């Protein structure tokens, strides 16, 4: 019992920054960026590993490029942490490794980009995340499977263990380990199920228990995601944002365009308001939003991405208190407040005694009606203008905010902060009559 309690305190402690952060930058960058056809190009186009390896001669960003560019942009966007692909499924490392020559240090670029990234994060006070793919397509044993080629498979597992240890040893304090690529051909795998818990067969093959024990020894404060076949700290829904029902930390990762890695053309870049909506949805469920960009092969970031991220940053400057450190909103509450599942107004986030109404659909008649809150509303304020607005009780569980401008004070999402007389409490919407 005692042991259990201690463990919980420990996890609360290491999740503290995580629960405050809410918004992070994901970066997919590696050899595949040179081809401009996303990070799965080696697999999709069945490029033999020898031919693929030649890309290393072309992966050589100019001297002037420094990951500070990424970190500064993340900072400007209001992001609180970053996750860089230290190694993707192609096996190419952006760090120095004793167990592989297929690295940016030992090929043309001759640079340890992970070290540069870590230094830049530290300089700008950004929490540091490492993405690491357990699988490596260059091993035929990966495709043959552990039964047909146990030795080859073990070599791949051994390489992963050694490299994760290198990453956890050589770069100082690391805040977040984002595993990926845990699936193994022929072994039952369902990421949705994994988001719900553990996947014992996969974990056994990667020897994940042993690995994560070592990781935690080396980095006692690290947060670990659920992609080593073990649940660990964080669930990781991908490309969708729906608040998790479970009482677990979660993070939705999302592409800004259609892809993770660099592509020559991005015809469907998400808009500022779409991305703010995702962020709000995550925050409303007490989760984080990890937004991915795939820099060009030379490390630069497309101007369209930069402009969007800067706009989100400006929005967060005014409205950040509704996002950072947000607490999970009761689902019924969110529904009531015109929340996540259908959205006459927008969505809701909350912290302490304050609920934040995110009005994406600003009404033109200057009045907003909100139903379902049991509490008394003490004060209402628009975050964008810092002005108080008039709030009236219209009956049990019904309030009205009036005297609003015709045009939304914020072009993307106007946030109205309602200060309540206590922690938000709601009526069950199914039991409410007209
Ligand atoms: C998937 C993809 C991988 C990508 C990751 C991001 O697992 O296989 O390419 O890096 O999602 O979460």
- Overall residue-averaged pLDDT value: 91
Hetero compounds: alpha-D-glucopyranose
- Enumerate the strands of the largest sheet in spatial order, edge to edge or round the barrel: 5-4-3-2-1-8-7-6
Count helical runs: 15
Question: How many extended strands?
Answer: 16
Q: Classify the helix fraction into a percent range.
A: 25-40%
> Oligomeric state of the chains?
single chain
Class of secondary structure makeup: alpha/beta
State which percent range the strand residues make up.
15-25%
Radius of gyration: 23 Å
Largest sheet: 8 strands, parallel
Low-confidence stretches: 1-9, 335-343
| Straight-line N-to-C gap | 49 Å
Shape label = elongated
Topology:
Elements: H1 2-14, H2 16-21, E1 23-27, H3 32-35, H4 41-44, H5 49-53, H6 68-76, E2 81-87, H7 113-123, E3 127-133, H8 140-144, H9 150-169, E4 176-180, H10 191-194, H11 200-206, H12 208-218, E5 223-224, E6 234-235, E7 249-255, H13 272-284, E8 288-293, H14 303-319, H15 331-336, E9 346-351, E10 354-359, E11 368-371, E12 377-382, E13 387-388, E14 390-395, E15 398-402, E16 414-420
Parallel strand pairs: 1-2, 1-8, 2-3, 3-4, 4-5, 6-7, 7-8
Antiparallel strand pairs: 9-10, 10-16, 11-15, 12-13, 12-16, 14-15
Helix pairs in contact: 6-14, 9-12, 13-14
The protein binds alpha-D-glucopyranose (GLC).
Alpha-D-glucopyranose (GLC) is lined by residues 28, 39-40, 180, 238, 253, 260.
